[in-house]
Amino acid sequence: TNSDVASNKLDRYFLRVIRSSSDLIITTGKTARAERLRSSKLAPIAIITSQPDSLNIPAIEEQSSQPVYVCSEVAPKQPFRNSNAKWLETSSASIAEIVLEVQARLNSKSPLLEIGIDSLRELASPNLVNELCLTVTNAVSRDLAIAASESFLKSVGLVAEQLQLLNSGNTWLFRLEFSH
C-alpha cells in the first residue's frame, strides 16, 4: 500500500512482516484507491471491486513481479497497463462470499485482508477474520491507545482479545484476536 504516506516506520515494518507470511493480499477497490495501492513483491494482490475501470492506481498502471487480480463481476473495458494485472470474474455476492471465492480460486491458504471498516464489519460477523492488526497514532500513553482501540472495536460492534501491543513513540500497534 501507499504506507509511506499513511503511517510510520513501525507500521510499515509490521505490514511487511505480515505480508511476507501471506500467500495472497486481498483488498477492496475503495481501499486500493484510498491508499494508491502499489503492487507487492511478497505476494499476489486481489482487488475486489464493482468498478474495475476506476482503479487508476500504481498496482494496475505499473509493471509488477507478482500478479494483481482485479476481481469483479464485470470485465474492465480497457486493458491494464501492468501486464501482470488480470481480470478474475467473480459473482455479485456479498464481500464475504467473494473473499471466499477468490481465496479458493487462487488456492490461498494464508490470505491477508487489507480492508476498511465497512468490509471489516461484514467479514467479522460470519467469522471469516480471526485476527486484526490495528494502528493507533498520536496516543501519548498506553492507556489512551488502549481506550482508542476499545472505542474503535465498540464502534464496529466487535469483541476482541489483545494478543500483542507494540509501540514506537506515539504510535501503538495492536494485534487482536476476535472472540467468536
General description of the model:
The structure is a single chain. The protein is α/β, with parallel strands linked by helices. Helix content is 33%, strand content 26%. It has helices spanning 3-6, 9-20, 29-35, 58-61, 95-105, 117-124, 142-155; strands spanning 24-28, 45-48, 68-72, 85-89, 111-114, 131-136, 160-168, 171-178. The strands form 2 sheets. It has a 5-stranded parallel sheet with strand order 4-3-2-1-5. The protein has a 3-stranded antiparallel sheet with strand order 6-8-7, with helices on one face. The protein is globular and about 50 Å long. The model is unreliable at 1-6 (pLDDT under 50).
Quick structural summary:
By secondary structure, the chain is an alpha/beta fold. It is built from seven helices and eight strands, in the order ααβαβαββαβαβαββ.
Please state the overall shape, judged from the principal axes of the Cα atoms: globular
Number of DSSP helices? 7
First-residue to last-residue Cα separation: 29 Å
- What about the largest sheet? 5 strands, parallel
> Roughly what fraction of the amino acids lie in strands?
25-35%
Give the class from helix and strand content and strand pairing: alpha/beta
Radius of gyration, Cα only, in angstroms?
Answer: 17 Å
Could you name the ranges where pLDDT drops below 50 across 5 or more consecutive residues?
1-6
Order of helices and strands: HHEHEHEEHEHEHEE
Number of distinct beta strands: 8
Strand line-up in the sheet with most strands: 4-3-2-1-5
As a percent range, the share of helical residues equals 25-40%
Mean pLDDT: 85
